[in-house]
Amino acid sequence: MKRTTPDTAPAARRRHALTRSTPPDHRARRARPLSTLPLVAFLAACTGEPAWLGLDEPLRVPGGTFKEGALPGTPPVPSGEAQLSPRVTVIESVNNVVRPGQEGKTLHGRTTTDAVAVALRFADLGTGYWVVPVGGPDPQANGELTWTVHLDIAHDAAPGLHPLRVAALDDAGRAGTQAEITTCVTAPIPDNLSTCDPTLAPPRAVLSLAWSNAADLDLVLVTPSGKIASPKQPTTAPAGQTGTTPSLDEAGVFDRDANAGCLAASPTRENIVWQAPPEHGPYLVYVNLHDACGEQAVTFEVSLHLPTPREDGGETLTEALRVPGQVLALHANGGTQLGFYVTAFSFQ
């Protein structure tokens, strides 16, 4: 991924023509031994800091100790320049992309042998850093000490590129040169990572349903051709002429079935994503309560997002429509109905 900063210039008017209409009446129904870790033991047992400290941070590390303030150590330096110890020698991850609400993103690496812990934070977000102990030596890396953290990303973490910095700490709490990995926090609405790389084109349209509790709520869309798309029928493409899988090149496709079977998802959001211009004509939007999952009611929002030009010549997704609503537990139907009519719009 290119190390670029997303363009935040105001977007021009969207290119798609959008109209709203009323629903047809017939459809509408509204390790190392602990003795070698004095610093970590001290932080965990003797600080007296509240257990909730750090819960409002954009980055959280379960099992770690949160400390207010700047990350210890000196800023990262270019490769090849002299670095101070203790220091992080390696940072590794499957990829550098995280999404708001994601839990358990693994980051691991190694430190010099004089470290007892690592500290980490986003350089440009939050108010403090997290401390976790290092593990045992890696015999294939001259005895450098290993470390692993599992990151939880806040639901409201700011989308875009953010430098994640990691410092190694010795038993006196001293840190050397910090290490850094650039991390992409994705936008809540799927945008093909254009938030982190403006050279990437966003989808042609995204219809989104968001809610905030454990209920199994489903987004349902009736297309101009009469196709009913839902998480159980996750594409707007008509059936193939011979019963085979239809082409999805120009279809809208669901990205997930959130809270299916009352298994909590994070985030509780479902999206229909069109990578090509959608079929022209009117669309009817419904929200169906498949299962209340113990909830008494569900408050939701349906929104439509379309690409609009950036001043630099690229595009960004812009909200074109937002409709709130609520459905009660007594309307749960196991997916046997369309659900409650929410709104209508047209692509022209």
TrEMBL record:
Record-given protein name: Uncharacterized protein
Stretches with biased composition (Low complexity): 233-246
Ranges where the record places region Disordered: 1-32, 227-246
